[in-house]
Write a structure and sequence with these properties.
2 domains; alpha/beta; binds calcium ion; five-stranded parallel beta sheet; single chain; Rossmann fold; elongated; about 230 residues; four-stranded antiparallel beta sheet
């Protein structure tokens, strides 16, 4: 799944790119309208995430020119302009959805998935050991037991499962699940991990969520020790 992110503000472009890549998508970034149109012309994208205020042209112009092509991907507009008029204008110009900045990454991911799903009905299910997470029905089971998770717990678990076997720092988890401007409160991650463990691990002999000392957390189904020794 290739996604084109058109965004001139590097911090946001990086944030969106990193997040979408860890959700398993291939992401290209274009920092202005001209580059965006070149990329759209040269390769096939399943989705375009489009900022409206670009240095060289209005995002709506990019949208119009993209829509003029025969095969044109769905477009999700990202904009600081959140007024009703702006949204309507974006949708009238052929955008498929509209997200106002600042936004939480989970919100963006949900919109991206919804737009990509329109094209093809691929059920998204993540499985690690006897733990299953159904991204569409938003249902989690372990060994056949249905487990109820709060939305943030679900998002953290999904992120861990998509990155199974990979240590994720608290900062990565915060940036992925909470508002992008969420600084200095990474210990909230520990609180949520504790809740998650009480629901998906405590009652089961094989523990799936592992603490990686000095880094953060990792989800792994195997029983090999995953905690890294810290050099003295
Ligand atoms: Ca901009």
């Amino acid at each position: 799944m290739r996604i084109l992110v058109v965004e001139d503000e590097q911090r946001i472009a990086d944030f969106v790119q990193r997040g979408l890549e860890s959700a398993g998508y291939t992401v290209d970034v274009a920092e202005d309208g001209t580059k965006a149109l070149e990329r759209i012309h040269d390769s096939d994208y399943e989705l375009m995430v489009l900022d409206l205020m670009l240095p060289d042209m209005d995002g709506l112009t990019v949208l119009e020119k993209t829509r003029a092509r025969q095969a044109s991907p769905p477009v999700l507009i990202l904009s600081a302009r959140g007024g009703v008029d702006d949204r309507v204008k974006g949708l009238e110009h052929g955008a498929d959805d509209y997200l106002v900045k600042p936004f939480a990454f989970v919100e963006l991911l949900a919109r991206v998935r919804a737009l990509l799903r329109r094209g093809q009905a691929t059920p998204e299910k993540l499985v690690v050991g006897d733990l299953t997470l159904d991204c569409i029905r938003r249902k989690v089971t372990r060994g056949g037991d249905v487990i109820d998770l709060a939305p943030k717990e679900f998002s953290i678990l999904e992120y861990l499962m998509r990155n199974r076997g990979r240590a994720l720092s608290r900062t990565m988890i915060v940036e992925h699940v909470w508002e992008m401007e969420y600084d200095g409160l990474t210990n909230i991650v520990d609180v949520y991990i504790r809740h998650l463990r009480s629901k998906i691990d405590d009652r089961y002999p094989v523990k799936l969520i592992h603490t990686v000392r000095g880094i953060g957390y990792m989800l792994e189904g195997s029983e090999r020790p995953v905690e890294q020794p810290i050099p003295a």
